[in-house]
Write a structure and sequence with these properties.
The chain is an all-alpha fold. The protein is 75% helix and 0% strand. The chain has 47 helices and no strands. It holds the Pfam family TPR_11.
């Protein structure tokens, strides 16, 4: 490797260059930089020395200088494999993988047998899933040194990744033959044998999978993984009896694993969901049978799903009574899924009220002679509060949680339950106060801290939320909470900022979400060498499969959707901001000397206040005010995110609709007809929100009709656009298409939703405007007294946005009177952290004066 680099150097200079390589390998970059400068003083045009200096600069924080010098080194000698390799390393570190691969290939053209470059190339090829190239590179490494077993393993894995199962199995057989004299042992043998069996399974040869597992059973240390593989193979081969034997072994090891009982149910030939009463009774009988055989709480839990009537009531009583006696606060979270069945909801309420009456009267459960601890009454109060909160009887829920607090005011969980009830009343300020009280009762509990943060964000108390989040950093004063990748925190803060109309700050939060997922995907790079070396091949396969779908996860899709939406809305807002800034500059310019003096004085006072605020520096350091976006190109940024979003697979219908609907608006705005059609098809396939689907179709039809009237259209684009327009309108005009839908869906029962939808359609058609929509919301909120709290809050949010986020109006005052428990949500101080703190201080002062 070094021969070509030192040919033009004398012996002393060659020694210096070898030291440079050692400093790089031992990560002594500062020493290497000094040595490189010393060598370049003697040989200023030596390309390899320049390249080494470039990488030292890059890894000492001078990234742009390092990259520039790396390019200059290449210009000095385009035939230097070291210069190309180093330029590739810098690009790899910059996450510019394709450019790095090109550099490595250039280096290999010059030095085709360089093992280090081949290894680096293989790592990048698996990172970008270039499996064809990976197989070629791994084969070259194998041929370079066939005695190294790890090269055989890596080549086998690359073939498996490519889907060449037969070739992969041949290589695995070669590995077994090579290691006969020195066989693998312990965990390495376990991992390799399980992987060997899994490759057969991936090829559909389950008989051979079982044979491999049987032959190596004694050497496989992980008996759980062994039996799990066997179960899958037996079920594929319809060998239920053998599968049941393996499942029973696993249940003996872990009787609390729900998956094992589901597998046992499957092996017994029982359906996942019963299609009729006969199947339901068979499943109930199955759980009764295994319940008598195994001492497992999970069986009683699973049996509740399939029980009905009196049988369900008996099983429920049997299940929850030990929870009351042991004082387990998580009971309600285990019962939540039962609330989809109204009959079961009524039975739960009946059982809890019967318990309450009996415990209050005799300190006993119904039909029991045992005197219970007072704590049983406490847990019953708490569960009743959670139950009534779930069924939206919030007054009753508050009544029971207050009874529980009066009974035991030191139980932390009660304040979280109370906070949740107030949250459902949209009284976010009181909800936060209760959550914060729970937090202060145990300052070492991170879960309580996170709950308080969530409630603070709903109120718009961002500085408080940031302060709370920093409490659990190693260095609360200097640490960056956004490095924690707390996606829920960033999304929650971004959503609240959107409701405030602070788009630049919201964009910063959604960018943090994007960055977190990019980092998660990039983190796999460190495992490409480790997993092969440690033979963790099945785990490695699972990791790669997970990373392939990392961008299909709900937080990424939701965060990206809000990011695109925010960027589009920010385009309009930024124009207003620029206009206001220009007007302000003109106003200052036209001020008299006296006015300018007063203005400067005011600016100094505000700057002084800001300097005293400990959060100002924190916000500035992490750009929480989104200054980056004030000077960016929003459409370019949105296009990058939309490109990722359009290719994601979304299973949740509501999320699929929302993400695709936003893309419909975006691609209309950016004049991209083919991508618009793709987004529209995703909206339609979501089968969620008929009115929303109609509105998306209407927008697309108007755009496509106008687009097709243009000149010099691409024939391919024109053809698909015409087909899409025909599929939407089905031979009708746009007016007929809209009128037909509206007339079919006009409700005569006074429902406002269809009337609101009709008005939105008129706005799209140009028959109405934003002012009419604002008036519609205002009239609805002022004159309708039959709106539910959820309906009122949704309409109020839309009204405030249409009203340029002005909270001080008659609608706000009317809703505060109509929903006094939600006064804060509809109030003029909503999301106002400063006023909230001032009011809290005033209240504390008043309480102090009374005392």
């Amino acid at each position: 490797m070094l021969k070509g680099a030192i040919d033009s150097l004398d012996s002393k200079q060659a020694a210096l260059f070898k030291n440079l390589v050692k400093f790089y390998e031992t990560k002594q970059y500062k020493k290497g930089l000094k040595q490189a400068d010393k060598l370049l003083e003697q040989k200023p045009n030596h390309a390899e020395s320049m390249a080494m200096k470039a990488i030292f600069l890059y890894f000492t924080g001078q990234k742009s200088e390092g990259l520039d010098l790396s390019k200059k080194a290449l210009m000095k000698n385009l035939k230097s494999d070291i210069a190309w390799h180093i330029h590739g390393i810098i690009n790899r570190t910059n996450r510019n993988y394709q450019e790095a691969i090109n550099c490595y290939k250039k280096a290999l053209d010059i030095s085709p047998d360089n093992v280090q470059i081949l290894r680096d190339l293989a790592l990048l090829q698996v990172q970008i899933r270039d499996v064809e190239g990976l197989c070629d590179t791994r084969k070259k490494l194998l041929l370079n040194k066939e005695s190294l077993i790890i090269n055989w393993v890596a080549y086998a894995f690359s073939l498996h990744l490519k889907g060449s199962i037969e070739e992969c199995l041949k290589v695995i057989d070669s590995i077994i033959n090579i290691t006969k004299n020195n066989p693998l042992k312990g965990i390495e043998k376990t991992e390799f044998c399980l992987y060997h069996a899994q490759v057969y399974a991936d090829g559909g040869n389950y008989e051979m999978q079982l044979k491999i597992l049987e032959q190596n059973e004694e050497g496989i240390l992980d008996k759980v993984a062994l039996n799990e593989q066997r179960i899958k193979a037996y079920l594929k081969l319809n060998k239920q009896d053998q599968a049941i034997q393996c499942i029973e072994k696993l249940i003996e090891i872990n009787p609390q694993n729900r998956n094992y009982f589901n597998l046992l149910k499957q092996a017994r030939g029982l359906p996942e969901i019963p299609a009729n009463e006969e199947e339901r009774l068979k499943i109930v009988s199955f759980f009764e049978e295994i319940g008598a055989k195994y001492n497992s709480n999970i069986i009683s839990y699973m049996a509740l799903d399939f029980s009905k009537g009196q049988d369900f009531e008996n099983k429920l009583i049997k299940y929850i009574t030990p929870y009351f006696r042991k004082g387990i606060p998580s009971l309600f979270s285990e019962l939540k899924h039962l609330y989809q069945d109204n009959e079961k909801v009524q039975i739960i309420e009946k059982v809890l009220l019967n318990n309450l009456a009996s415990l209050q009267k005799e300190s006993k459960f119904p039909n029991s002679d045992a005197i219970e601890s007072p704590c049983c009454l406490l847990w019953n109060y708490m569960l009743l509060a959670q139950h009534f909160d779930r069924v939206n009887q919030l007054t009753k829920a508050l009544e029971y949680v207050n009874l529980a607090i009066n009974h035991t005011p030191t139980l932390i969980e009660l304040y979280l339950v109370k906070a949740k009830i107030y949250k459902h009343q949209f009284n976010h300020k009181v909800a936060f106060e209760n959550a914060d009280k729970a937090r202060t009762m145990d300052l070492a509990d991170r879960y309580l801290n996170n709950k308080a943060i969530k409630y603070a964000l709903r109120c718009g108390f961002f500085d408080q939320a940031n302060d709370l989040l920093r409490l659990f950093l190693k260095d609360p004063s200097e640490g960056n909470p956004f490095e924690l990748q707390t996606l829920w925190y960033e999304i929650a803060q971004g959503e609240t900022l959107l409701k405030k109309g602070e788009y630049a700050r919201a964009l910063r939060m959604f960018k943090f979400v994007q960055k977190a997922f990019i980092d998660i995907y990039e983190d796999q790079f460190d495992f490409h060498t480790y997993c092969i070396r440690k033979y963790n091949l099945n785990t490695y396969t699972n990791l790669l499969n997970y990373e392939n779908g990392v961008y299909n996860q709900k937080p990424f899709i939701y965060g990206s959707t809000l990011l695109v939406q925010s960027l589009m809305e920010y385009i309009t807002v930024r124009l207003v901001e620029i206009k206001k800034k220009e007007e302000e500059e003109l106003r200052i310019k036209n001020m008299t000397q006296m006015e300018k003096k007063k203005w400067k004085k005011q600016q100094e006072i505000e700057a002084e206040k800001a300097a005293k605020d400990p959060n100002v520096e924190f916000r500035k350091k992490h750009d929480l005010d989104g200054e980056e976006f004030r000077n960016s190109q929003p459409l370019v940024e949105a296009n990058h995110v939309a490109k990722q979003l359009i290719h994601t697979k979304v299973s949740n219908p509501q999320l699929k609709f929302k993400s695709s609907y936003v893309l419909v608006d975006f691609y209309i705005e950016t004049n991209r007809p083919l991508l618009l059609i793709k987004a529209l098809n995703k909206v339609i396939s979501s089968n969620h929100c008929a009115n929303g689907i109609h509105l998306a179709k209407l927008k697309a039809a108007i755009y496509l009709e106008k687009f097709l009237k243009g000149d010099k259209l691409n024939e391919h684009v024109k053809k698909y656009s015409e087909e899409a327009l025909h599929n939407i309108l089905n031979g009708k005009t746009i007016e007929q298409f809209n009128t037909e839908y509206i007339s079919k869906n006009t409700s005569s029962n006074g429902c406002y939703k269809n009337a609101l939808h009709a008005l939105k359609c008129d706005i799209v058609l140009g028959k109405a405007n934003k002012e009419q929509l604002l008036k519609f919301h205002e009239d609805l909120l002022m004159n309708r007294n039959d709106l539910t709290l959820q309906q009122a809050t949704q309409l109020f949010d839309e009204f405030i946005k249409l009203n340029d986020f002005n909270y001080k109006n008659e609608v706000s005052e009317k809703l505060q009177k109509q929903f006094p428990e939600s006064e804060y949500y509809f109030g003029k101080y909503r999301f106002d952290e400063k006023t909230h703190l001032e009011l809290a201080q005033q209240q504390q002062q008043q309480d102090s004066n009374k005392k």
